[in-house]
Known about the structure:
The complex is a heterodimer of chains A (363) and B (308). Chain A has helices at 13-38, 42-51, 57-82, 90-107, 116-142, 146-166, 203-218, 220-230, 232-237, 242-265, 280-290, 295-318, 324-345, 354-362; strands at 5-7, 346-348. By secondary structure, chain A is mostly helical. Chain A has two domains: 1-40 and 321-363, no CATH class; 59-306, ABC transporter involved in vitamin B12 uptake, BtuC, CATH 1.10.3470. In chain A, helix 2 packs across helix 12 and helix 11 (280-290) runs parallel beside helix 13 (324-345). Chain A is globular. Chain B is mainly α and 308 residues long. In chain B, 71% of the residues lie in helices and 0% in strands. Chain B has 14 helices and no strands. In chain B, helix 1 (3-30) packs antiparallel against helix 9 (183-209), helix 2 runs parallel beside helix 4 and helix 6 crosses helix 7. Chain B is globular, with a radius of gyration of 19 Å. The N and C termini of chain B lie far apart (59 Å). Chains A and B meet through helix 5, helix 6, helix 11 and helix 13 of A and helix 3, helix 4, helix 10 and helix 13 of B.
Amino acid sequence: xxxxxxxxxxxxxxxxxATPFIAIAITILLSSIMLIIQGKSxxxxxxxxxxxxxxxxxxxxxxxxxxxxxxxxAQALAIGFRAKVWNIGGEGQMIMxxxxxxxxxxxxxxxxxxxxxxxxxxxxxxxxxxxxxxxxFLKTRYNANEILVTLMLSSIALQILYFFLLGPWxxxxxxxxxxxxxxxxxxxxxxIIFGFRLxxxxxxxxxxxxxxxxxxxxRFGGFQLTVxxxxxxxxxxxxYSANGAVWKSLLIAGMAAGIAGMSEVAGPxxxxxxxxTSGYGYSAIIVAYLGALHPLGxxxxxxxxxxxxxxxxxxxVTADLPISSVHIFQGLLLVTYLSSYTFVxxxxxxxxxxxxxIESRLI
Amino acid sequence: MTPLEFFLAGTMSAxxxxxxxxxxxxxxxxSGMLNLGVEGMMAISAAVGFVVTYQSGSxxxxxxxxxxxxxxxxxxxxxxxxxxxxxxxxxxxxVGILGLGLSALIGKKHESLTVTAPxxxxxxxxxxxxxxxxxLFQQNIVVYxxxxxxxxxxxxxxxxxxxxxxxxxxxxxxAAEALSYSVLKIRYGAVxxxxxxxxxxxxxxxxxxxPLWADGMIAGRGWIAVALVVFGTxxxxxxxxxxxxxxxxxxxxxxxxxxxVALPSQLLSAMPFIVTIVVLAxxxxxxxxxxxxxxxxxxxxxxxxxxx
Lengths: 363, 308
């Protein structure tokens, strides 16, 4: 299909803001068609997705529980995406953060020390950074494509997780389930409201967001990173290093994903088990884009996708919708967003009349 | 069948999944289109191929519909990245996520069911030769077809006008357009071919190689196929060798177990990915050679304007 576009002189500001909403609208429309084909009730499904997550304090607290890791990883990924460093291994970096952080409560099961949690945060950050650092090293030293390497590293991290869960760290009293012991209270983030799963780990992504916003928008460092990605040679001439952008992007993302993984085991899950990432590493890619790779936009995008995730859980029960629906919705969202984003930089070329066409050729 | 025969025969079968998908990706990349949605295309086709084969009882119908499904998904990629000029990497990821989600939905009612793989071919005399017979002459017909396709693609890309046109679009789309080739049509076609091949690879995986459906069964093989194109430095022959190497690596688990070596099974499961990373680093470190062989405009959006 041929559409005639012409490049705008400057990107359209209003459309940058409108694009996510256009994408959401088209995605909802396409999802509705799919729901009708499957014979599901639109009313029940959309009620589950968009109303039920707001109906109770508990539901809202669950939305915020998802919001934390999504926001954290997406903010960090966006830094890399803007510099054209494609880290899609958030899952693996999360797993490594979770594994390293879990080593403390697994080996010091009785400790009630106040240093337990800070040590776990540090180890979580280190685990994620180490895993992302491998990709940065292979990219800068051996020119190995970071998309493939980060992705392969995620598959490897998953096997490392299984190794610990089925072997040395398996809970001896756990009826042979692949999981560790439940962590003691000192190794868990305290809940913000008693009785809910929402906990104080939420503070870290929020502070990180503020930091990133200042760093990317107001400081020279963010500019260097972006130039390093968009025009590596220009960056070299100006004295900034493209390799530096790769290292910075990957290490920051690794740290964020690592701490997010740690927050899962030291938060809602309370132990190390197979489903430690809940797919946040992939969802965060969509959040980063839907937020137009802008720190503030990402806040709203993360909130929206958290609602979708919780809504998906409700739809599973009330509308009998398979869990894959959330993934399909996310995929559609990114596809429609990317298509709609074209109009930020391009506009339709007015169709020329025959005479104009010939005239333009003569010139 | 002796263990060695079993291993070598299994290698050829396992390699076919990689080979089919990688050949399709090769053609797409030669035209300048970096489609990272291979995993998703394979997953959908594996689900569709399985469901259709299960319901119809015919592998041929299963393959046809799976191929069509692969083309269908690849057209989403083409529409967004060619017509709407979106970034190819992001679009490929989006299509991959969409494909994985849809495959789970399509295969949901058939989870853990099985179909019977068709009997391998039997060639009088040849199939009965010890070692060579079971390895080379008792495979499924698709294994041979994949090899034939590899040869045809190599010929087409290097010796025909069509191949020249595809390569021109991947090297310098503006120049291809000046030679009155339609970059749009050629890239759409190349992406569709990639989808078709990923579709066959998915169907082969779910109805012949391991004839069952389980959510997530493609398990990274689509990504390895993408990596294989880099390994092969965009050359059909080397991609062929790479696919067979990975077929062998993915059977490593069986070999190690048969020798009674006590290695954690997780290490063996991770082996294809570890090997991918290592080989990728080795091949990519020769920057000059990589730049020489990679299509010059690979991954770049072409909006008809002068190259920057």
